[in-house]
Design goal:
The complex is a heterodimer of chains A (71) and B (134).
Chain A: H1 3-29, H2 35-42, H3 52-69
Chain B: H1 17-31, H2 39-57, H3 78-93, H4 103-111, H5 114-132
Helix pairs in contact in B: 1-5, 2-5
The chains are: A mainly alpha (71), B mainly alpha (134).
Amino acid sequence: MSVTRMIAIGGFVLAALLVVGVEWAARRWHRIPTLGDMAAVIMTHEAGRIPVGRIAVFGFWWWVGWHFLAR
Amino acid sequence: MDQPELAVPSAPAWSRPVVMMPIFTVASLLGGLLPSFSIEANLYIFALGSVMLWLGLSQRVPRRPPPRRLPRGLVWWLLPVGVFVFFELSTFAFGSTEEYPTLSLLADPVLDHYVPRALVYFGWLSGFWGLVRR
């Protein structure tokens, strides 16, 4: 395995660990919003009567599933 | 003196975890059978996403109230996002090769196996359901 590949894997693992760590801190101290709280606030945005925030968040999650599981 | 009772909408019975989790489990076990790049997998993801989108945009499932404002600690999220974006963009700029793999390239061989694939389906569906309830 090349060094660059190991660094890339390490970087993605680090990012995942940071997500877990920040989410854990958010649930423990409440000074940091949880991922769910941030998504909830984004989803409150509307343009007129169109829930653009909800559509955007659902669309993003839908794309994530398609990208990793179907394409 | 009697206090007036608050009318809290209760979740429909079908939306409770004891019902939804077995449904997600079966859907994940089925989804794990469908290989990437197949028409079946594309249709399956499209169908599942459509149902979730419909539930999420309708008023059929009660939602948790959102927080009024986010605390300043929000900036801590820039740390994992920054690390991820740095490595994803760097590897993408180098062509997403074996030596410079993007996350997708690393995930593909793992998701070729049934169990991790079914587990990712379950995580994706559970995450979608969590968003629908928000």
